[in-house]
Sequence to fold (175 residues):
Amino acid sequence: MMVLFYIFIGIIVLLIIIMFVAPQDYEINRSVVIKKPVTEVFQYLKYIKNQDDWSPWKKKDRDMQQTYVGTDGEVGFIAKWEGNKDVGMGEQEILSINESESVKSKLRFFKPWKSESEAYLRVVDLTKDQTNVTWGFKGKNPIPFNAFMLFFNMDKKVGKDFEEGLDNLKRILEK
Fold:
């Protein structure tokens, strides 16, 4: 019986150590070069509703319910969604727009779990007809949830979605 007690205590101690050693911060992003001027690319990206055309998450639930608050393309605009288990329930609010540079937004997920992240779209003028677009998000996983990230490769999973979305974006804007 004492052996089981020591094994149990050992597992608890190991879990506590993992929680304090595992990283809490995360950032995932991907980039693509689009053969269009930066102003044209940015004008398209600053509207959250345009994400329905290129983001892979809309494809995961074509019947998802969406509502909007405010004026798209302006600070304070909120896009809300509720869908199947693949997209869950949440909202995206535009926090800042730096013309022809970046759009930052807050992603709030309510289902299947609660979390918040800062999403961003950044554009960089490479030449007069080439723009680098970076799409990403970053945030914190509080203890004890940060330990889960040791066993789940979020960069690999979400990175695939970002790559698919950026490929769709490139195809749309280069038509």
